[in-house]
Amino acid sequence: MIYDARRVRALALCLLLLPSLARAYDFQVDSETIGQAYQLRAADDALVNRRRLTQYLGLHVYNIGPHDELGRPLPRNQIYLTTAMRFDAEMGDFSTLRELAGRTPQREVYAEKLDLLYAYLGGRDLLGFIDFQLGRQILVDLYDWSSFDGLHVQARTPFYLAAEAWGGLNVSGASPIDSPVYRVDGTALGGNPLGSLAARQEEQLQPTFGLAARLYGLRDLSARFSYERTMSATGGPRQPGEPSWGVVDEHVGLTARGRLFDGRITPWFAFRYSLLAGRLDEIYAGARAQIGRHGLSTEYVLAAPTFDGDSIWNVFASQAFDDVRVSYDVSFWHVRAYARAFVRLFFDDRGAAASAGGWVGARVELGRGWARVDGYYEDGYGGRRAGAELSTRVRLWGNPLDGLFAEGRMSYSGFRDDLRPIDRADSFGVQAGLRISPVRGVVVHGLVEENVNRLYTSQLRVLAMLDLSFWLGQRPVGARRPQPWSGF
Fold first, then answer.
1. What DSSP element (H or E) covers 194?
2. Which of 151, 153, 129 is closest to 76 using CA atoms?
3. How far apart are CA 411 and CA 132, in angstroms?
4. Alpha carbon 206 to chain centroid distance?
5. How far apart are CA 184 and CA 148, in angstroms?
6. Kind and range of the H or E run holding 11
7. What backbone torsions phi and psi does residue 7 show, to the nearest 5 degrees?
8. Which of 50, 53, 52 is nearest to 93 (CA)?
9. In the list 66, 320, 405, 481, which could disulfide-bond 435, CB 3.0-4.6 Å?
């Protein structure tokens, strides 16, 4: 009997020590609730109360694919699903667009609005070289954000070269769940009978597609060349022979980044050419040198903004400018300091003009928090802008990840327009708040802000935020989770 009891206890101990199998899928849930209360001054000098509630919800399922004998996800042939939604509610005195304009349909200002930011099914390393996303997704590059409903496929070759192709319908606001966050600038659905702003649903569809080739897997060089085109119905009435579809955006772009002398020097270069406008509208070129704790960066920017063919910003003259920037940063002890300067040149039919300015700042790491000071100044073409800010965060209780933190900020900002001297103001602000994380994955944040300037003798703002994030499942080892809106 004693022998049998020992065998039973040994068998039970072995069963307890055996690694348990992980879930077939891993889940992540993110939730963020933000409440705001403040006032804005209307055109008739009346104060309008704003009471806004914003809710974000993200639902993600990862590692729907093969696992090893211990239940860990394998790197290849993984499927995942990721979604993010936003709900906005206005409970203050803000008028609707119909009340403001009388006859304009209420298509842009809602008392309550549900937006689908992104929602797509994705696959990673299918057959060892294919990635895909299907659904509403967001593409991010050096120049812009773009959002569309469709398919994005990437195939990698063994020769450090990958090819991308995507296509679908551009997020234009035609759908009730379209988000204005990722729509192109200057477009709105106001019942216009022409172009992508048309009143009829079928005339608001905007097919979009693109191609790209990029280098991957190289330690010292990365590059990507892309082409993108978006079209829309021309609307009606049309004259005989006029096309029913037109191009509203078409451009090619190149981004490249290198690594020299074991990472001590990092150069980069990028450009975008608008085929619709027929001009080079963006150039970025620069380099960063890191020598010990000292860093030096230089950068040149040419910006001649172009917009969607239906954007109202095309009505106004967008002035191109050249920008030269230099920055220096250093780290020592518990301090990280920086200094930046720029010169901006404007050219038009009247000649050339210039503005210049810079920023300085430092951050000090303390035993239970940090303190930071920043200042900036700019003068020249366009007017004068200046400001300074002192901010801090101190841990009052708990560990650096889960605890109670106090935050504070004092700021000054001033501006003066050189064409309209009446457009000037000096503003002083104070912020104070508390942030508590009672358990891992839960953060509660409260903030009170007061601003005083020429327009407001008192501008009180109250903000509260509840942030929840939970991961349910086994942490993947050797199989990374896709980023929310790249996936690859």
1. none
2. 129
3. 46
4. 23
5. 11
6. helix 2-17
7. -65, -40
8. 50
9. 405
Percent of the chain with pLDDT over 70: 81
Residue 453 vs residues 390, 426, 428, 450: alpha-carbon distances, Å: 18, 6, 6, 10
How remote is the C-alpha of 380 from its chain's centroid? 30
Give the Cα separation of 66 and 198 in Å (integer). Answer: 47
Task: Dump pLDDT digits (tens) for 294-325.
Answer: 999 999 999 888 888 777 777 775 678 899 99
Tokens standing for 155? 């195939």
The first and second tokens of residue 483, run together, are 């980023």
Residue type, 4: D
Q: How many residues does the chain have?
A: 488
Pairing verdict, β 335-348 and 245-258: unpaired
HSE-CB of 343 using CA atoms within 13 angstroms = 6
| Contact yes or no for 281/273 (Cβ under 8 A) | yes
Report the distance separating Cα 361 and Cα 457, nearest Å. 29
Q: Tens digit of pLDDT for each residue in 249-298?
A: 899 999 999 999 998 999 999 999 999 888 898 999 999 999 999 999 99
Task: Please tell me the distance from the alpha carbon of residue 456 to that of residue 46, in angstroms, as a whole number.
Answer: 11
Which residues, in sequence order, are CB contacts of 213 under 8 Å at separation 6+?
161, 162, 163, 164, 224, 225
Buried b (16+ CB within 10 A) or exposed e, 285-323: ebebeeeeeeeebebebbbbebbbbbbeeeeeeeeebbe
The b-or-e profile of 94-115 (16+ CB within 10 A means b, else e) is beebeeeeeeeeebebeeebeb
CA–CA separation, 452 vs 2, rounded Å?
Answer: 83
Nearest residue to 118 (alpha-carbon basis) of 82, 167, 146, 169: 82
User: What stretches of 234-320 adopt beta strand conformation (E)?
Assistant: 245-258, 265-274, 279-291, 294-303
- What is the C-alpha to C-alpha distance for residues 434 and 396, in angstroms, rounded to an integer? 10
This prediction has a pTM of 0.80
**Tokens at residue 122, please?**
């994705």
Please choose, from the candidates 449, 442, 448, the residue with its C-alpha nearest in 3D space to the C-alpha of residue 466.
442
* Pick from 226, 186, 205, 206: nearest CA to 308: 186
- Cβ neighbours of residue 375 under 8 Å, at least 6 residues apart? 359, 360, 361, 387, 388, 389
Strand ranges (E), 42-110: 47-62, 78-90
Element (H, E) at 98: helix 97-101
Q: Where on the phi/psi map is residue 311: left (φ > 0), alpha (ψ -120 to 50), or beta? A: beta
* Residue 235 DSSP one-character state: B
Q: Count the Cβ atoms, other than its own, within 10 Å of residue 453.
A: 14
3-class SS at 42? coil
